[in-house]
Amino acid sequence: xxxxxxxxxxxxxxxxxxxxxxxxxxxxxxxxxxxxxxxxxxxxxxxxxxxxxxxxxxxxxxxxxxxxxxxxxxxxxxxxxxxxxxxxxxxxxxxxxxxxxxxxxxxxxxxxxxxxxxxxxxxxxxxxxxxxxxxxxxxxxxxxxxxxxxxxxxxxxxxxxxxxxxxxxxxxxxxxxxxxxxxxxxxxxxxxxxxxxxxxxxxxxxxxxxxxxxxxxxxxxxxxxxxxxxxxxxxxxxxxxxxxxxxxxxxxxxxxxxxxxxxxxxxx
Length: 268
Known about the structure:
With 268 residues, the chain is α/β, with parallel strands linked by helices. It has helices at residues 67-76, 141-154, 175-183, 193-202, 227-252, and strands at 2-7, 18-19, 23-27, 30-39, 46-52, 79-90, 100-102, 105-107, 131-134, 158-160, 163-166, 188-190, 207-216, 260-263. Helix 3 (175-183) links the parallel strand 11 and strand 12 (188-190). Helix 2 crosses helix 5. It starts with a strand and ends in a 5-residue tail after the last strand.
């Protein structure tokens, strides 16, 4: 039994992870580099499966992340749940830069992968596993509880709840686009976690998402966040994420997936 960890911009490795990785994992949707090892506040720690979305050195922009391969690899290698982190732009003007948000809702209207195809594993008519993911909240309550407990133990302030807005990259959004997201109740945006949430749900793989606010999105404040400040905050996010994740792992247990996948009888 292992917990998956998905990291993004600024976090390309887990400090102190006892692993020989990253090593390739092959899936029907491509190859994934994954590190498997023990990590946590107590010896021998908790077994984790770590994937860096963008890869060391950030070779993949958000429009090149292999979401189906990443989530399929987590499931195939035995993850019972996934803790994901993302740096993001604040849409809520009251949110403080450098703070964390443990999201409880999702805004992902396009429901599409970076290549434009629908965000789903269910692509074959009549396939036995096809179905509809039905849920109240897309994020695992068990894993959200673990993240909040980890933040408390690590002494890191975190906002309990917020709406994550998925936007398509690699460009940033206009002020008009951000206004529409604010009207929908979005708290913060980034360019990767929408597909991860949906694909994990389809595989009944519990998933929770923690965000670090690096900048204010366009138009949120009278003056734009300087790029230098965004870069500094992105660098600071790695330590914050690591401390919370390490402390959260012992609380993860065997989480339950949110909702159900309503499947149809296989075709004859």
